[in-house]
Design goal:
Strand content: 5-15%
CATH class of the largest domain: Alpha Beta
CATH architecture of the largest domain: 3-Layer(aba) Sandwich
Strand order of the largest sheet: 4-10-9-8-7-5-6
CATH superfamily of the largest domain: Type I PLP-dependent aspartate aminotransferase-like (Major domain)
Helix content: 25-40%
Length: 482
C-alpha cells in the first residue's frame, strides 16, 4: 500500500507499523534554543540532542528498528573469530546481492577508505554521478581526482525528471577517450544521491554504464547506502522495473556492479557496513586492510548485536511496505511545502525533504553560507534540527579560495518509522512562518574552520544580530508558545 485517500480528498501517507516503544521528546523555549545555537557555533551538528525537539539532521543510524531486529540482537554470538552471527550476516548478503565475498566494516566511510586505498593511485580519476563529502575526501587524500558527471537535469532544483541522479554516459565516454581507461580508478554510482536532494538513478542508466565499463575494463562501484530509496523509485517510476519484485531489482543492480559497499547506518536500519564482490582478486586486495583498519574479518569493527539486527534489516529492506515509508512521508512534506510556495527540491527524493536556501534566503550571498544560516534559523524557531548541504559542506581549494556549492540545501531527513504525521505538520507550519519572515535571516561567517570536512566541527557566528530580531518577531506572533 502506498497511501490512502481520505473522504475529504486529501492524500495521506499511511504508517505501515504500530508504535510499541516510545522515546520522550522535549521542546525548550526559543530563548534557550538561541543559547544552545550560540554554544554550538551555529552549527547544527554541534547541538546537544537534549536541546533538539525533532532531529532531522540525518537518517544515518537513527532509523527505528523493528521488533524482529531487537529480538535478533539477543541471539548474538560474541566469538571473536568464527562467530555464527557473522555467518548469518554473510549468508544474507550473499542471498540478496548474489555476491560470493563479503568484508565487514564499522560503517560506510570505512568501506570508502578501504576501496580508495586499494584502487586509487596518485593522479587516477574516480568518476561518479555525484560526490558525497567523505567519499571525495578519501579519494583526494589518496591522490585521486574526482570527476562528477551528473546528468543536466540533476542540477535543476525543480523539475519532473524521475531520475535526476543519472550519470551522463556521454561525458564518461569522452573522458575515457581523452584520459585513457587505464587512468580511471573506477566509476562510482551513489544510490539516492545525497547532496542533490536524495535523487535516484535508473536501472537503464546503470546498464548503459556497465556496457561502457565492460568495453574498457573499468571497475563499476555501487554505493548502496541509500539503496532502499533508489529501489522504491525504480519500482514506481521505471517501466522495466514495474513487474519486478524489490528482490529482483536489487539483484539486477548487484549483477551490474563489480563492487558494492554500504553503510548499515542507512541500509538495514542498524549500524555497521560492508563491501561485497564476486571478484576474488578485488576481494583479496581489500581483505588485508580490514584487520588493519576495522577488526577481524568476522566482525570488522561491528558489534555482533548490530550484525544480528542488520541481517534482519537487510531482509526487511526487500519489503515494499517497509522501504516506501521514507519516500512517502518525504513526498507528503515536500508537496505540502511546495503548495504553500516554499522553495524545495522537486520531485521529492529519498532521505529527506530539501529546502532550497538559494531561493529561500536569496538575499544572503553564498560566501555567507545561506544554507547554514537557514538551518540555524529553523532550529531557533522550531527546535527542528536540519543539516546544511551547501557551501559550508565544501572544502576550500588548495589556494584557500571558497568553492561555492552547486546547490544550497537544508536537508530535513525523515528517519524511517520515527516521526508521526502531526510532527511533520508542525515542521511544515514553522517553515511556512519562517519563509514569511525570511528577510530577518542574515549571513554567517566562520570563527573556527577545520581544513577537512569543516561542516562537522566548524563554528560560525552571525554577521549581524539577526537571531535576536527573529526571536523578537517569533514572540510577537506566537506569544508564550514554545
Amino acid at each position: 500500500m502506498s497511501h490512502v485517500k481520505f473522504y475529504s480528498g486529501e492524500k495521506v501517507p499511511l504508517e505501515m507499523h504500530k508504535v510499541r516503544i516510545v522515546q520522550k521528546l522535549n521542546i525548550i523555549p526559543i530563548e534557550e534554543r538561541l543559547e544552545a545555537l550560540k554554544e554550538a557555533g551555529y552549527n547544527t551538528f554541534l547541538l546537544r540532542n537534549r536541546d533538539v525537539f525533532m532531529d532531522m539532521l540525518t537518517d544515518s543510524g537513527v532509523n527505528a528498528m523493528s521488533d524482529k531486529q531487537l529480538a535478533a540482537m539477543m541471539e548474538a554470538d560474541d566469538s571473536y573469530a568464527g562467530s555464527e552471527t557473522y555467518v548469518k550476516l554473510e549468508e544474507k548478503v550473499q542471498e540478496i546481492f548474489g555476491t560470493e565475498f563479503f568484508l565487514p566494516a564499522h560503517q560506510g566511510r570505512a568501506c570508502e577508505n578501504i576501496i580508495s586505498k586499494t584502487f586509487v593511485k596518485p593522479g587516477s580519476i574516480a568518476v561518479m554521478n555525484y560526490h558525497f563529502t567523505t567519499t571525495r575526501s578519501h579519494i583526494v587524500i589518496n591522490g585521486g581526482i574526482v570527476e562528477e558527471y551528473l546528468c543536466e537535469e540533476g542540477y535543476e532544483i525543480n523539475s519532473d525528471h524521475p531520475f535526476k541522479g543519472n550519470l551522463d554516459i556521454e561525458k564518461l565516454k569522452a573522458l575515457i577517450a581523452e584520459k585513457g581507461a587505464e587512468n580511471i580508478a573506477f566509476v562510482r554510482y551513489e544510490a539516492g544521491t545525497n547532496l542533490i536532494g536524495g535523487q535516484p538513478f535508473s536501472l537503464a542508466n546503470l546498464q548503459e554504464a556497465r556496457k561502457v565499463c565492460d568495453e574498457h575494463g573499468i571497475i563499476l562501484v555501487l554505493d548502496a547506502s541509500l539503496l532502499a530509496d533508489n529501489l522504491y523509485f525504480m519500482k514506481i517510476r521505471e517501466e522495466q522495473c514495474k513487474d519486478m519484485s524489490i528482490r529482483e531489482i536489487t539483484r539486477a543492480m548487484a549483477d551490474l556492479s563489480d563492487i558494492i559497499y554500504f553503510s548499515a547506518r542507512k541500509l538495514g536500519c542498524a549500524r555497521g557496513g560492508g563491501i561485497c564482490t564476486n571478484n576474488k582478486e578485488y576481494y583479496i586486495k581489500m581483505r588485508e586492510l580490514v584487520p588493519l583498519y576495522e577488526g577481524f574479518l568476522t566482525y570488522g569493527g561491528m558489534s555482533v548485536r548490530e550484525m544480528e539486527a542488520l541481517t534482519v534489516g537487510l531482509e526487511e529492506t526487500m519489503d515494499m511496505n517497509m522501504i516506501n515509508q521514507g519516500p512517502l512521508f518525504i513526498e507528503y512534506m515536500t508537496e505540502e511545502l511546495f503548495s504553500k510556495g516554499i522553495p524545495v527540491v522537486t520531485p521529492a527524493g529519498g532521505l529527506g525533504c530539501h529546502l532550497n536556501a538559494k531561493e529561500f534566503v536569496k538575499h544572503i550571498p553564498q560566501h555567507e553560507y545561506p544554507a547554514a544560516a537557514l538551518a540555524a534559523a529553523l532550529f531557533l524557531v522550531s527546535g527542528v534540527r536540519g543539516m546544511e548541504r551547501g557551501t559550508m559542506s565544501e572544502d576550500r581549494d588548495e589556494n584557500g579560495a571558497e568553492k561555492l556549492a552547486d546547490m544550497e540545501l537544508v536537508r530535513l531527513a525523515l528517519p524511517r518509522r520515527v516521526f508521526t504525521l502531526s510532527q511533520v505538520k508542525y515542521a511544515v507550519d514553522r517553515i511556512v512562518w519562517l519563509y514569511e519572515n525570511r528577510d530577518l535571516i542574515g549571513g554567517m561567517k566562520f570563527v573556527e574552520e577545520p581544513k577537512i570536512l569543516r561542516f562537522f566541527l566548524g563554528k560560525l557566528d552571525t554577521a549581524t544580530d539577526w537571531p535576536q530580531d527573529l526571536l523578537k518577531k517569533f514572540r510577537e506572533d506566537f506569544g508564550d508558545s514554545l
